[in-house]
Design brief:
14 strands; single chain; alpha/beta; Pribosyltran_N; seven-stranded mixed beta sheet
Length: 355
């Protein structure tokens, strides 16, 4: 595959993930453009583009990290600087889209992902390349084309090549919400599936056992709602339980991101109690916030496998169980195809696995 001509494509990288930007540039055979992104003493973000970008296709590589608000502001200013410098097109390569979990309406809240999408489009982005959005429907928030790439082929390849006796595995959904993703993995690997349901209870004394319930009243065949609208009953999760057999098997938990690892550790402890002899966690985005490396190190989890959409070199130094899968080849191929006006459907085809 021919690399794009360097005369009319420019790679620009923010401060969020320079290692990934260099990997993509090396695969494409181009250099990252002369763009300086720095902060003044009052913490304002400054962007200076050294070379002329008039009439060129600009690809801004910026992901979401722990310093998420600075990452977003850098991206907005870089996109606007390219737009006002008469760039032909400005494509945002955002491997992990920040605030993607806030894509649903909460009580007295707002859909922050929609706000971010509108800001990115207004700043000058004409196209967005991202990976494994928390919900696919997020693409509808953008007023420009969005390519939502998938990391599952890389993680599936890791399972096949790096997990001994993977045929004796079971794909585990950490909660019912991730059952769809787990089913997709299980069908491609021809494996079984298990789902973890419920949550750990703090104390038995806190449970409502009904001793203070009002006495029962004779019921009529016609329901009377009484005065006003009925009160909405609060949800209460049952005690944590595993639906499916994991005894004597390798348990592989899959999710789109791993940030707060306490729920993963609690799930791993339950899987260990149910007889799983090895536990793996696979995720696209490894944010690994707070004291995640220490919790993983002390947990029954044997390996945490994530891609390099988010930098996590410091966490890898603190925990030997964290492994990385490089996805720069997928992002560089997406940039090449978009620049050469080729079809992107090849990158979205179903993974075909050999039996």
């Amino acid at each position: 595959m021919d690399a794009p001509k360097t005369s009319d494509v420019v790679l620009v990288a923010g401060n969020s993930h320079p290692e990934l930007a260099n990997l993509i540039a090396n695969r494409l055979g181009v250099k990252t453009g002369g763009c300086a992104v720095y902060h003044k003493q009052n913490r304002e973000t400054m962007v200076q583009i050294g070379d002329s970008i008039r009439g060129k296709d600009i690809y801004i590589i910026q992901t979401g990290t722990k310093n998420v608000n600075n990452n977003i502001m850098e991206l907005l200013i870089m996109a606007y600087a390219c737009k006002t410098s008469s760039a032909k097109s400005v494509v945002g390569v955002i491997p992990y889209l920040p605030y993607s979990k806030q894509c649903k309406m909460r009580k007295r809240g707002c859909i922050v992902t929609k706000l971010l999408a509108q800001m990115l489009c207004k700043s000058g982005l004409t196209h967005v390349i991202t990976m494994d959005l928390h919900q696919k429907e997020i693409q509808g928030f953008f007023d420009c084309p969005v390519d939502n790439l998938r990391a599952s082929p890389f993680l599936l390849q890791y399972i096949q090549e790096c997990i001994p006796d993977y045929r004796n595995s079971v794909i585990v959904a950490r909660n019912p919400g991730s059952a769809k993703k787990a089913t997709s993995y299980a069908e491609r690997l021809r494996l079984g599936i298990a789902v973890i349901h419920g949550e750990q209870k703090e104390s038995e004394s806190d449970e409502v056992d009904g001793r203070y319930s009002p006495p029962t009243l004779p019921r009529s065949r016609t329901m009377d709602a009484g005065v006003g609208v009925p009160i909405h009953i609060a949800k209460e999760k049952p005690p944590i339980n595993v639906v499916g057999d994991v005894g004597g098997r390798i348990a592989i938990m899959v999710d789109d991101m791993i940030d707060d690892v306490q729920s993963f550790v609690a799930a791993a402890e339950v899987l260990k109690e149910r007889g799983a002899y090895k536990i793996y966690v696979m995720a696209t985005h490894g944010l690994l916030s707070s004291d995640a490396p220490r919790l993983i190190e002390d947990s029954p989890i044997d390996e945490v496998v994530v891609t390099n959409t988010v930098p996590h070199e410091l966490q890898k130094m603190q925990c030997h169980k964290i492994k990385t899968v490089d996805i720069s080849i997928l992002l560089s191929e997406a940039i090449r195809r978009i620049h050469n006006k080729e079809s992107m459907s090849y990158l979205f085809k179903n993974v075909t696995l050999e039996d």
